[in-house]
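note to self — DONT lose this again. spent like an hour looking for the file last time. sequence + predicted structure for the chain T wanted, 369 res
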Amino acid sequence: MNVMLAARALKGSAALHLTKAPVPEPGPLDVLVKVASAGLAPGMMRLLEMGAFKHLPTTLGHEAAGTVAAVGAEVTGATGVAVGDRVRLHPNLTCRSCVYCRTDREMMCAQQAMVGHAAFGDVAMPLYDAYHDGGLAEYVRVPSWLIDPLPGNVSFDVGAKVHDLANAVRALKCADLPLGSTLVVTAATGTMGTATVKLAPHFGVARLVLVGRNAERLAAVRPLAGEVPVDTVALEELPDDWAESAGLTRRIREIVPEGVHGVLDFVPQGPVMAQATAAMATGGTLVHMGANPAPLPIPARIWMAKCWRFVGTRACTRSDAQEVLSLLARGVLDAEELITHRFPLAEAERAVAAMQSRSEPIWMAVINP
């Protein structure tokens, strides 16, 4: 039996385990991909601790790109997938037939789960049962309909991170910003923050206010916005009592007295979301993608009076990913500089530890088996 190296989650453990596993055998409608690059997501270990992975043991990793190593007997030329093709996998496992799947809202499907990642519902999930093993391995098996061709001018590393770029596209779409808008991006030095900064000019954003913990790291992110003017707010430079005294709201209002048009919030906890929201102009939109458990302490009457919108979104759709691939293929978007860290598969545990410790700035990290 052929075996491969894989980074796996095991029952009863919240750690990552590097083990040998069988190379998957493709079924009739499957594609086997030899992984060249797999993305690392900082939230996957937290989801593992929460019990969101329904099948253990399992190979982690919902972001992957590589070359087609084999195709199933019923994968025809009409699918456009052939051995040797450069591809990326779209990780969203859904029913493909419900009203959400048919209206570009697949992340709302009751069966929504992700290859190598979490399942979000309590209904039967036959696709997740069959395809829960992910891409932090030398090979990954996926349904043929979840394969996207990777343009020749796009590296495997960027191809692996298309999903995060597509998440940023979805968040920007949800914000529905007017042309010439001013946008706050929180957690701006992280994976989703940097992806959003890079994409914001393509959505009519005319000014960015970037919020993060560290001034030096924010300064490093500033050039990603291209010619869009950028202001930064470092939490470490606010008064010590900013969390209790609305110091972040005041600072954003000093920068943009008329208020901002939107907030894209990726902070997983704490008061940043609420304080950034309070700096919005009338008609502003908060888009949250950080899974913050804290309550939002702004009365409903304020939302009514200000005509604010609150939109939650947990993932991108296939069309979002294809928009990113189109931008990359046309050379309109260059995302290579977002890949700041590359690790061999043998060092996957060290890579996860580096992302969890936040001891050094990591925008996007990939594993190269």
